[in-house]
Amino acid sequence: MKLVSGNMIWTEINNIPEKYLYLSEDLSCDVVIIGGGITGAITAYYFTSAGINTVLVDKNIIGFGSTSASTSILQYEIDTNLIGLKTMIGEDNAAKSFKLCHKAVYDIQRMVEDLNDDCRFAFRDCLYYSENRGEVDSLKDEYDLREKYDFDVEFIDKEKGAERFDFPLEAGIYSRKGSAEIDPYKFTHELIKRSIAMGLKVYENTEVAQIKSDSKGVIIKTKNDFSIKASKAIITTGFEAVNYFNEEIVKFYRTFTIATSPLEKIKGWYNQCIIRDTNSPYYYVRPTLDNRLIIGGEDIQIMKRKSKIANLSEDSPQAIEKYNNLIKRIKYLFPNIPKYNIDFRFNGIFGVTTDGLPYIGEYERMENCYFNLGYGANGILYAVLGGQLLRELYLGKESNDLKLFRFHRPGAKINTGE
Ligand SMILES: Cc1cc2nc3c(=O)[nH]c(=O)nc-3n(C[C@H](O)[C@H](O)[C@H](O)COP(=O)(O)OP(=O)(O)OC[C@H]3O[C@@H](n4cnc5c(N)ncnc54)[C@H](O)[C@@H]3O)c2cc1C
């Protein structure tokens, strides 16, 4: 599948910060991380900062997978809302999942403080809203439940909505703090740079062709026939990791994004908050620190990996129609928007699990391998949780939180194909 296509904002506005050699010798280490996207970089940061001898390899160059196309909204709220998640996994676990994401936003802030660059990180408020009268009560219930768990939320009725926004809104939940934005590509590179200073070894253009694991440890073989011997392998290969499983563990969608030129202040966009609607699929909007507007949505489900949509070319009529729909949506949401250009348009594949939660932990068929797979719209926050939980697991302190994200959990019905 074509993971990303188009002119991705992050790789265009940043030069390639650093290049790394490919692996040209056999190595031994404590932990080998396979995949150098944002998840691999976050995981490497957590492991090296605990003094663990870690090597990271990527088959391509750092940050050029899904990471390069990420809109990089960091939101405490999960795609499955709190009430929906409560029905699937129980109220305590649902609230716990939201709380963990909330904390992960602040953990990212702390990581950024430890780097030499702000990675365009900024806190933002966020709005989750509906323009459908029939959803007012359910949004109120969602608001009540979030308030019960001390999230800093405000219920927005139609009148308040009209004061703050120029688009039709019947009801919404406005959340203060707990959400942020970042430049995912810069963040990935800065984390890797910081981890190298703490002992990480990094190899680009080094494809893992085989993982041999048993009760003693792991030996990975690269495509150019070198090997890395480790006590654990951590697989952070994003959506390509599905190749390790016979079961279907995630549904794939292609999602479309455009980013405008920097704009004058937009009227009817209260506090330049992050906006998401309740539609399915939904549209979402975020600003950037240089006042661009990024809008995403228009998702299409990928039914077959060899289908046209799984391998969509950037200039196909279908892609162009999707970008045009996003332009129309900008006009609908912000009728008074000043004149702008579309500077970037790109699309990428993302995966969704039944309960909206990631897969973090061990998988029974692969001894001494950990997975950190942040499937879902909160992929980056999930990568943080994975980095922390897997480090604890490696150090012999298995957290109860891992149960929320394990393979074969009740909330994520895995289709075994039988
Ligand atoms: C359009 C779009 C918008 C998104 N918006 C958001 C958002 O707002 N907020 C959010 O949190 N998340 C968002 N996501 C999801 C988020 O981007 C992903 O969760 C995240 O980028 C995944 O990072 P990763 O490091 O796991 O995967 P990737 O970035 O894909 O990295 C995996 C790496 O593994 C390497 N690899 C694969 N196979 C091998 C192998 N055999 N050997 C060696 N290396 C290998 C690849 O080369 C790649 O570099 C979005 C995704 C898309 C596509």
Features:
418 residues; alpha+beta; FAD/NAD(P)-binding domain; D-Amino Acid Oxidase, Chain A, domain 2; 2 domains; 10-stranded mixed sheet; 8-stranded mixed sheet; 9 helices; 27% helix; 28% strand; binds flavin-adenine dinucleotide
Walkthrough of the structure:
β9 and β10 form a beta hairpin. The chain has two domains: 4-9 and 20-70 and 185-249 and 355-405, FAD/NAD(P)-binding domain (3-Layer(bba) Sandwich); 124-178 and 250-352, D-Amino Acid Oxidase, Chain A, domain 2. α2 (38-48) runs parallel beside α9 (379-394). The strands form two sheets. Strands 1, 4, 5, 6, 7, 12, 13, 14, 15 and 16 form a ten-stranded mixed β-sheet that branches. Strands 2, 3, 8, 9, 10, 11, 17 and 18 form an eight-stranded mixed β-sheet that branches. The radius of gyration is 21 Å and the shape is globular. The protein is α+β, with helices and mostly antiparallel strands and 418 residues long. It is 27% helix and 28% strand. Flavin-adenine dinucleotide (FAD) is lined by residues 34-40, 57-60, 64-67, 69-73, 207-208, 236-238, 240, 255, 257, 296, 348-350, 374, 377-381.
